[in-house]
Q: What sequence folds into this?
């Protein structure tokens, strides 16, 4: 009797916490279809009109393109840097790997406001004007670790015998890497890229300090919520951002799951 | 000979990523450290590279900044404790009460909010806590008086706890997963009540997981400025907000740099404490 009461309480609490975690996100998705222009619950009717209005807003469209541009460039750079770091560290002593991982993780482990003001001071001192380039540099710096840890995890599970076999057959290390290792890392790199893209696409804190006059989509949302302007458009943009970041993550999870099953 | 070539290969591969990190990141942190000792020319508003301790002196002497620092650290600690309490039931169910398929689904559901837009998740709470928001509608429907938490420190505490809960859940799940079932059986066989088993076996073994989670919940809350701006009120300024306000045209970047050093020191100190509780032994 008491056992079932205890189990019931445990499950009840667990379900309540899960609801606390997930319901607010669902709610945000519902508001995008609100026909009215005031933020009142329950929504006044289902409509797509704010989707149309938001797409017509040039400010929002420009912000979207800047965000996409930054996310694509930063992901590409981070993919190269992160993969090089993982492949280069593979086979070194675990102590070296530990220290290396620590430094690569710093940019996302330390609070964004620190990374942000540090990079802001750096660019100012070096007389580098704040443009798309500074945004890309900042985003690349904290995205690299995502690719690195994904690739590193995969490399640890690859048997070294594969590379040795390739070299025994007369392949140069480079050729062995390109024909054997790289294809095997493909899945890990791809899922890392999706996560890095998602991370860059909705980063707001470091961006604030490195964007100058550029407005990314999260910066537009931040400004609009703060000033209480364009709220129906904020609903739509937030819907799109959640969708755009969730899809690659679910896809990335599937990729990672299929890689680990190999 | 081949050993040397091999090492050269490692170096060649590691040079671009670590060169980038050293230049842009460690370089930035170094400049930040230096600029905490610079000052702003009161006439022109330009940063001048003359060494001074004035920024730190102002931090110590001005009560406003002490209150901001206390509030930041206090709320970060409160959020950490709240997340530990909230994480327990769900983490326990995920780790020990469900099959592997449901477990995977639950883990993805728990991680999902973390990867989705932070702004969207903060914004959701403006819709919930607003005067004509979701919560008040349900309260009124239930015949209860409405709440007015919007733009207070209560809202801030609630939203922070919501935002960073996954950071606590995941390490706690993996700590609980690692407890061998035989240990719990043994405790039961020895006549321990479930409460005794929890207090003397499960809880102590989960401490490293809670310590690992707390590093994230504490550090992330500490460095925030977005949430206080969006859901906080007049008395909700964090260290991050002072930093944010001082970067830009009319700001005082050296002072902001000095204040952000406080963040760095507090986080560093917290990590040292957390390490004693095994926070970094899990992974």
A:
């Amino acid at each position: 009797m008491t056992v079932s009461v205890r189990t019931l309480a445990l499950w009840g609490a667990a379900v309540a916490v899960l609801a606390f975690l997930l319901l607010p996100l669902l709610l945000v998705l519902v508001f995008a279809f609100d026909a009215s222009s005031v933020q009142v619950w329950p929504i006044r009717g289902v409509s797509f009109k704010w989707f149309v209005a938001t797409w017509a807003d040039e400010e929002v469209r420009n912000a979207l393109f800047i965000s996409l541009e930054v996310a694509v460039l930063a992901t590409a750079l981070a993919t190269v840097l992160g993969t090089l770091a993982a492949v280069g560290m593979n086979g070194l002593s675990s102590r070296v790997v530990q220290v290396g991982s620590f430094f690569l993780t710093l940019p996302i482990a330390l609070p964004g406001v620190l990374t942000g003001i540090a990079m802001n001071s750096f660019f100012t001192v070096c007389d580098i004007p704040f443009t798309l380039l500074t945004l890309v540099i900042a985003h690349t710096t904290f995205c690299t670790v995502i690719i690195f840890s994904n690739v590193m995890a995969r490399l640890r599970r690859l048997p070294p015998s594969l590379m040795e076999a390739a070299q025994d057959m007369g392949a140069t290390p480079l050729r062995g890497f390109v024909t054997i290792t790289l294809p095997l890392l493909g899945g890990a790199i791809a899922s890392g890229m999706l996560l890095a893209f998602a991370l860059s696409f909705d980063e707001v804190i470091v961006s604030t300090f490195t964007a100058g006059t550029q407005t990314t989509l999260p910066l537009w949302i931040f400004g609009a919520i703060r000033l209480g302007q364009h709220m129906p458009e904020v609903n739509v943009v937030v819907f799109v951002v959640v969708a755009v970041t969730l899809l690659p993550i679910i896809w990335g999870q599937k990729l990672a799951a299929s890689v680990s099953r190999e | 000979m081949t050993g040397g070539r091999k090492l050269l290969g490692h170096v060649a591969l590691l040079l671009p990523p670590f060169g980038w990190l050293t230049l842009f990141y460690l370089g930035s942190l170094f400049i930040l450290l230096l600029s905490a000792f610079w000052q702003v020319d009161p006439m022109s508003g330009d940063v001048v590279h003359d060494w001074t301790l004035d920024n730190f002196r102002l931090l110590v002497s001005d009560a406003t900044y002490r209150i901001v620092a206390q509030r930041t650290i206090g709320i970060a600690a409160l959020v950490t404790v709240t997340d530990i309490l909230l994480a327990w039931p769900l983490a326990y169910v995920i780790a020990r009460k469900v099959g592997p398929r449901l477990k995977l689904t639950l883990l993805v559901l728990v991680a999902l909010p973390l990867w989705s837009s932070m702004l969207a998740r903060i914004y959701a709470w403006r819709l919930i806590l607003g005067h004509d928001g979701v919560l008040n509608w349900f309260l009124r429907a239930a015949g209860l008086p409405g709440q007015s938490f919007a733009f207070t420190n209560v809202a801030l505490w609630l939203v922070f706890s919501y935002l960073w809960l996954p950071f606590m859940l995941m390490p706690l799940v993996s700590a609980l997963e690692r407890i061998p079932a035989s240990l719990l059986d043994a405790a039961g066989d020895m006549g321990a009540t479930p409460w005794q088993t929890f207090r003397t076996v499960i809880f102590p073994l989960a401490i490293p997981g809670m310590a690992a989670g707390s590093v994230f919940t504490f550090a992330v809350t500490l460095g925030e400025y977005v949430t206080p701006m969006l859901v906080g009120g007049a008395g909700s300024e964090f260290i991050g907000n002072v930093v944010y306000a001082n970067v830009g045209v009319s700001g005082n970047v050296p002072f902001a740099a000095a204040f952000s050093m406080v963040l760095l020191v507090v986080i560093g100190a917290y990590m040292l404490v957390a390490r004693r509780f095994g926070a970094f032994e899990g992974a």
Remarks:
- The domain at 54-97+153-276 of chain B is CATH 1.10.3720.10 (MetI-like fold).
- The longest strand of chain B covers residues 39-40.
- The CA atoms of residues 228 and 236 of chain B lie 6 Å apart.
